[in-house]
């Protein structure tokens, strides 16, 4: 091997590394666009069954079916915004989230009631809290800062929303648009297997995302009923937020439980802690736990087994591994990504025994 061949090899390797670096830098710069495309892809997968229903059952033209589906999504979004903005504003007013001094006063008042209640039961809660330095670690300014940032981000949100809806429309109208774009990178001879893989992935993920909406709806209904029974203010918005946060696997239920606990207690500020706040909050949390049991033992197993055709233990391990490697984002995208990988493995590596075992039932 002469020096010219070695030099050419080094230059080629450097060229490949430079090209990869430029591609990664380009993707980093357009990450917002990638997020828009990803969200639009999810919306198109959710809307795909509706479009197919309108085309096959009601004999709609493809374009009309897509327009009707998009109008349905936009109407649903407008309805949610119209319903939740007044409720959120009212909840913010009750919590005095935009008034830092009032918020601290409310929390201090609630804290004093809790301490007084437990003193009757010979439990020195105040000393325990002081020993843990918990109050000193609380930064109440984070809450109004969050809301101020949320308000300032509405402009960017409107642009992003328009972009997502625009992309979603064409993903639904030209359902093969995204697929054809990827097919340009598929080597010759693998086109048919790749097309079968795309079709299978779209079917499984459509059912998965529709199943997630059903999961949110079930939790939302249960939470709303529980909160309304015990007279918690703004039950609908609290139920919706807690059901939505529940989408984050394993971490979401903990966060939504804390949120429901906090908002349930704060909705009764000024009332007697022992006679009103504690009993109501206890009953609400019992209802929350019951909803979680229904979700964990009925809703989720049904979604996973019927949509992505994976065993619950298999899904649990994949989510845990993805969470360790990529954090919360990894936990959210773990199941769709794992499902796509399984379909591709079955289509291209079905001759291996381990692949057959892993993809059984797909």
Report on the structure:
This protein has 362 residues and is mainly α. The protein has 15 helices and no strands. It has helices spanning 3-29, 31-56, 62-95, 100-119, 125-132, 134-137, 142-152, 154-173, 177-183, 191-229, 235-245, 251-266, 273-308, 312-348, 353-358. α12 (251-266) packs antiparallel against α13. The relative contact order is 0.08.
Topology:
Layout: H1 3-29, H2 31-56, H3 62-95, H4 100-119, H5 125-132, H6 134-137, H7 142-152, H8 154-173, H9 177-183, H10 191-229, H11 235-245, H12 251-266, H13 273-308, H14 312-348, H15 353-358
Helix pairs in contact: 2-3, 2-8, 2-10, 3-8, 10-11, 10-13, 10-14, 11-12, 12-13, 13-14
Could you tell me the mean pLDDT? 76
Q: Find the structural class using helix and strand composition.
A: mainly alpha
Strand content: under 5%
Give helix % range.
Answer: over 70%
pLDDT < 50 runs, ≥5 residues: none
Terminal CA distance reads 50 Å
The shape, in one word, is globular
Radius of gyration over alpha carbons? 26 Å
How would a crystallographer describe the biggest sheet?
A: none
Number of helices, counting only DSSP H or I runs of 4 residues or more: 15
Quaternary state reads single chain
Subcellular location: Cell membrane
Membrane topology: Multi-pass membrane protein
Protein name: AI-2E family transporter
InterPro entries: AI-2E-like
Keywords:
about 350 residues, mainly alpha, 15 helices
What is the gist of this entry?
With 362 residues, this protein is mostly helical. It is 83% helix and 0% strand. It is found in: Cell membrane.
């Amino acid at each position: 091997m002469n020096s010219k061949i070695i030099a050419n090899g080094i230059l080629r390797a450097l060229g490949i590394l430079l090209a990869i670096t430029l591609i990664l830098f380009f993707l980093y710069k357009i990450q917002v666009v990638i997020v828009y495309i990803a969200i639009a892809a999810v919306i198109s997968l959710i809307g795909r069954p509706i479009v197919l229903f309108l085309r096959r059952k009601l004999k709609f033209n493809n374009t009309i079916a897509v327009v009707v589906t998009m109008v349905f999504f936009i109407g649903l979004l407008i309805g949610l915004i119209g319903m939740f903005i007044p409720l959120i504003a009212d909840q913010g007013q009750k919590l005095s989230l935009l008034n830092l001094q009032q918020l601290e006063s409310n929390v201090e008042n609630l804290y004093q009631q809790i301490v007084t209640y437990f003193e009757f039961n010979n439990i020195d809660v105040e000393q325990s809290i002081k020993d843990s330095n918990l109050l000193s670690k609380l930064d109440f300014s984070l809450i109004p800062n969050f809301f101020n940032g949320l308000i300032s981000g509405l402009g960017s949100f409107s642009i992003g929303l328009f972009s997502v809806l625009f992309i979603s429309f064409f993903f639904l109208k030209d359902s093969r648009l995204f697929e054809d774009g990827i097919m340009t990178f598929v080597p010759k001879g693998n086109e048919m297997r790749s097309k079968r893989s795309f079709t299978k992935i779209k079917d499984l993920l459509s059912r998965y995302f529709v199943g997630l909406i059903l999961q949110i709806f079930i939790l939302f209904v249960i939470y709303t009923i529980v909160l309304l029974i015990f007279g918690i203010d703004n039950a609908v918005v609290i139920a919706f937020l807690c059901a939505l946060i529940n989408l984050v696997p394993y971490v979401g239920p903990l966060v939504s439980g804390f949120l429901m606990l906090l908002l349930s207690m704060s909705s009764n500020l000024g009332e007697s802690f022992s006679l009103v706040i504690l009993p109501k909050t206890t009953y609400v949390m019992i209802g929350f736990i019951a909803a979680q049991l229904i979700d964990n033992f009925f809703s989720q197993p049904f979604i996973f087994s019927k949509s992505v055709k994976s065993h619950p233990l298999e899904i649990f391990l994949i989510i845990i591994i993805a969470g360790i490697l990529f954090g919360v984002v990894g936990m959210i995208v773990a199941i769709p990504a794992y499902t796509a990988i399984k379909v591709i493995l079955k289509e291209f590596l079905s001759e291996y025994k381990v692949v057959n075992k892993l993809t059984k039932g797909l």
